[in-house]
Structure formats: structure tokens, C-alpha cells
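Worked example 3 (structure in, sequence out).
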């Protein structure tokens, strides 16, 4: 593991060519980098971020660049700040804990957030498009394709997509609590070359950044590099919900899906996009996975659970087959066809997650029975898997 002092743009490690050459980039910015401590948007902070992003997304690349010097980059901006932006206008002194007031703040703040981005990017002749996502939009097959097409079309038309969770109505998203994981999943969704996570801390440290003797970790080549590292759990500004834990988890998800990550402060956004050795660089550790299965594993909320017998567990986990009714021993929850459910072994350990093909109330009559038998007695509609292998993802043990 390579370590460097917390000096922002340290020369340790040299330029990051893979970062500098990235053409499609997802940039995530946290609430604390956009708002005042009391809540409400800080226009100067928003403009400073847009100044950096617009530099890389304008026609022909960087303003003033020589012919062929810089390729135009496509940037998708995942922006927190909707709830925080709505605090001051609604007279709320701090982020509320109850769901109704969180949703009210998000309703007011989301409009203010997008309006501010619209005005700021307009200084460079750029348009923005708002994209609000929920877990259903990204784990269900048709919804996932639609989200991909929308983002692709915005980029093709030269707009900057501004993505956020739909905090106004989506209960699960507010309980989910941060946009770091969302950014990692969006990076995979749009087939990004790079994910940049911007916050109020200039990288990952091997202890509390404010404590003497701690140093910034300049590179992470794999999970073992973080063994023994004390990762904090809260941001310091008090207006967001993410912390270093969520950022490291997001970096792990993206890197495992083949997307390298730079984690740094919004102050060093320009250095990060230029490939300077700022912040913490997470090397890719895996290859790109099947699209929506990453969302299914990391963003979906199971609506129920199916307990599998030992044979079915082996078939699903080891042979990667579909789950048939004959291997299901018990059903829990109240779900509908198409909902995500957990697949558990006989000890109750979740081994996989999948999109179920039947309503919960239908499955009890199917338990332990073969597919041909069900087709004969109940009709061809029941000659299906409980969960098809294309809609199933294994979970880490």
C-alpha cells in the first residue's frame, strides 16, 4: 500500500495516465461541498465545481486547447444536497430525523439544486438534465434499460446529467442515506472510465485526519491494503449522511466492477480530473459485470426471502443454475412477481438475491414440486423458474 502526506496534490506516484485519459467520468459531490453549515446552497461553491467540470466538457475539450490536445470528456454529475439545500428555506436548523420533513426538504431543495446547476452551467453554454433514480428504476430489467437510454441520450446531446436519488417520495432511498453507492452504480450503468468522489476530506487516511502522525493513503490496489485502517463513520459538516465508510464501500464496488476511483476533496477536483496524484486512487480490481445485477446486489431492497434446501443451494451457488420450485422449502414476506428477494440456505444465511417470477401468495402451492408436474396440474404459466439465473446474483459470504 502506498501512502503520502495530506498535501492535496502530492507528487507521490506521479501522474495517473489512466485517470487523465478517461473519457466518460462520473463525478459525485457531497452535500458538505455544496452547502453552508446551516443548510442552503453556497452559490460560490457550486460555481467553483462547475468551473472545473465545464473546463472538460466544453466543445473541443479545454478552453484554449490546441487542436488534438485534449479530448472532450463526458461527465455525469451525481449530486447530493437536495435535503441540505431545503433546510434554510424551510426554516429548519438541521437535517430532520423524521421522514416527512426529510421529504419536504428534498422537495424544496431539489428544485433549488437543479436551478443552481442550470444557471451555473449556462455560463458556459451547457445544458443540464435532471435524472432522479430509485432502486426499482435500476434493478428491474425494463427500468434499468430505460435509465441507461436516458443517460446515454443526454450525453449524446451534449447535456450534463445531474443524478440524485428520488428522496422526495422514495422511502428506501432516504433510509439508504448516501449517494456514494449510487455514484458507483451509475458509473457501472453508463460504462464510465472513471469515478471521482468529492467530499470535504482530501483522501483516505490511515487514522483520524486531525490526529498527529496520520497520513493519507495515496493508492489502494485491493481490499487487503485497507486491513487495519481505521475508517471514520461521519462527515464533519453535519448536513450530509455519508462518511468515509460509504465512500470506501462505493470505491470497492466500482473498482470490483472495473471502474477506477479517485477519492479527494472538492477543492482538488481539477487536479483529480487532470490525473495528478491527489487524494486516494483505487485501482480497478475486477471486470465489468452484467449490468443490472450490480444494482440487484448493492442497491435493491429485498421484499422477502426464499429458504432453499441443500441441493438447491449447491445448484444455485456452485452450478449457477436457476432456482426451481422443487428446491424451495419456505417463503417469507409479501412480494409481487418481479420484486427482489433473498435466497437463503437452511441456516438462514443469504447466499444470493434475485428477481422472483411469482407473487408470494402463489409460491406455497409450488414448494417442493417439479416443473413438469406444475405445468400439468396448473398450466403452462407455471412451467417457469422461481428465479431465473439471468435475474440472480450471488452474494459475498
Amino acid at each position: 500500500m502506498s501512502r503520502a502526506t495530506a498535501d492535496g496534490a502530492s507528487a507521490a506516484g506521479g501522474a495517473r495516465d489512466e485517470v487523465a485519459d478517461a473519457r466518460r467520468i462520473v463525478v459525485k459531490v457531497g452535500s458538505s461541498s455544496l452547502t453552508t453549515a446551516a443548510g442552503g446552497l453556497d452559490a460560490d461553491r457550486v460555481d467553483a465545481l462547475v468551473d472545473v467540470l465545464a473546463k472538460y466538457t466544453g466543445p473541443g475539450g479545454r478552453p484554449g486547447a490546441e487542436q488534438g490536445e485534449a479530448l472532450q470528456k463526458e461527465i455525469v454529475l451525481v449530486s447530493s444536497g437536495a435535503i441540505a439545500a431545503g433546510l434554510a428555506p424551510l426554516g429548519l436548523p438541521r437535517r430532520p430525523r423524521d421522514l416527512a420533513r426529510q421529504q419536504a426538504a428534498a422537495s424544496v431543495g431539489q428544485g433549488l439544486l437543479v436551478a443552481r446547476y442550470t444557471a451555473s452551467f449556462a455560463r458556459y453554454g451547457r445544458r443540464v438534465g435532471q435524472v432522479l433514480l430509485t432502486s426499482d428504476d435500476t434493478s428491474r430489467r425494463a427500468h434499468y434499460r430505460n435509465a441507461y437510454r436516458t443517460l446515454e441520450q443526454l450525453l449524446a446531446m451534449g447535456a450534463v446529467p445531474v443524478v440524485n436519488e428520488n428522496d422526495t417520495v422514495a422511502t428506501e432511498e432516504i433510509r439508504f442515506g448516501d449517494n456514494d453507492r449510487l455514484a458507483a452504480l451509475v458509473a457501472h450503468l453508463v460504462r464510465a472510465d472513471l469515478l471521482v468522489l468529492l467530499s470535504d476530506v482530501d483522501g483516505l487516511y490511515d487514522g483520524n485526519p486531525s490526529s498527529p502522525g496520520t497520513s493519507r493513503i495515496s493508492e489502494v490496489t485491493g481490499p487487503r491494503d485497507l486491513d487495519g485502517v481505521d475508517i471514520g463513520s461521519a462527515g464533519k459538516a453535519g448536513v450530509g449522511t455519508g462518511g468515509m465508510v460509504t465512500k470506501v464501500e462505493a470505491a470497492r464496488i466500482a473498482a470490483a466492477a472495473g471502474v477506477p476511483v479517485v477519492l479527494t476533496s472538492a477543492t482538488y477536483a481539477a487536479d483529480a480530473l487532470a490525473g495528478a496524484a491527489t487524494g486516494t486512487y483505487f485501482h480497478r480490481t475486477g471486470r465489468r459485470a452484467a449490468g443490472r445485477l450490480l444494482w440487484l446486489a448493492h442497491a435493491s431492497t429485498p421484499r422477502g426471502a426464499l429458504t432453499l434446501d441443500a441441493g438447491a443451494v449447491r445448484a444455485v451457488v456452485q452450478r449457477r443454475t436457476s432456482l426451481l420450485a422443487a428446491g424451495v422449502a419456505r417463503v417469507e414476506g409479501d412480494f409481487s412477481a418481479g420484486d427482489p428477494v433473498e435466497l437463503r440456505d437452511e441456516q438462514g444465511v443469504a447466499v444470493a438475491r434475485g428477481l422472483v417470477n411469482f407473487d408470494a401468495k402463489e409460491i406455497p402451492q409450488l414448494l417442493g414440486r417439479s416443473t413438469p408436474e406444475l405445468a400439468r396440474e396448473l398450466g403452462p404459466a407455471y412451467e417457469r423458474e422461481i428465479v431465473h439465473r439471468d435475474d440472480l446474483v450471488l452474494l459475498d459470504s
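Notes: The chain has two domains: 2-295, 302-394. Residues 1-14, 60-70, 173-177, 233-241 have pLDDT under 50 and may be disordered.
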